[in-house]
Amino acid sequence: MTTTPPSASSRFGSEGPDVDAFKHAFRLHPAGIALITALAPHGPVGLTASSVASVGIDPPALAFSVTRATGSAGGILDAETHVVHLLDAHHIGLAQVFARSGTDRFTPEQGWSTLPTGEPHLADARVALRCRILQTTPVGSSVLVLSEVLDIHQGRRGEPVAYVDREFRPLGSRS
To answer: Is 145 exposed, middle or buried (0-12, 13-18, 19+ CB in 10 A)?
Structure first.
């Protein structure tokens, strides 16, 4: 799918940034893919995220955003801890499942297990970072989450994947 960039006049209006131009700017900006999971009172919850970023190393910290504080996102925000799974290309199908509401999640065929601390864990993810929330910041209908990394679980390394123009795209082998 090809998108047409907004015209220059729509990008710099006197009433603030054009929302469509903002969406377009990030639609074409590649982002890594992660699954964020937690154990909520009603069971495991999870979502696909392309907003995960490293924040610091002392302490190890990361940030991500969720678009609302309900459903899976609400379960993650309310949980004591959560796990950020950094994905490779062999997880594209799973990322698509967790990106849509009402899909079958945490099935045995998907490869889920449970950490000793109770959180859902995708053992073959490249890496899984067990975290606890340090701070949340509401931004309109979204929430920015700052988390401290508590544990790191190494998995198997595969072909990198990025989210670009609303598609999960393998990045190919490294030269």
So the answer is: buried
Cα–Cα distance between 35 and 47 in angstroms, integer? 6
Backbone angles phi, psi at 24, to 5 degrees: -60, -40
Instruction: Supply φ then ψ for residue 124, to 5 degrees.
Output: -95, 10
Cα separation, 158 vs 20, whole angstroms: 34
Preceding omega of 59 cis (within 30 degrees of 0): yes
- Calculate ∠ Cα 34-78-122, nearest 5°: 30
Closest by CA to 116, choosing from 86, 146, 151, 147, is 151
The Cα 95–Cα 48 span in angstroms is: 6
**pLDDT at residue number 48:** 96
Burial label, 106 (beta-carbon count in 10 A; 0-12, 13-18, 19+): middle
75 vs 85, 86, 144, CA distance in Å? Answer: 16, 19, 15
pLDDT at 75: 94
What's the pLDDT tens digit per position in 16-39? Answer: 788 889 888 888 898 999 999 999
Domain annotation for the chain: domains and CATH numbers: 18-160 (2.30.110.10)
Tokens 């490293």 sit on residue: 54
Pairing of strands 112-114, 142-154: unpaired
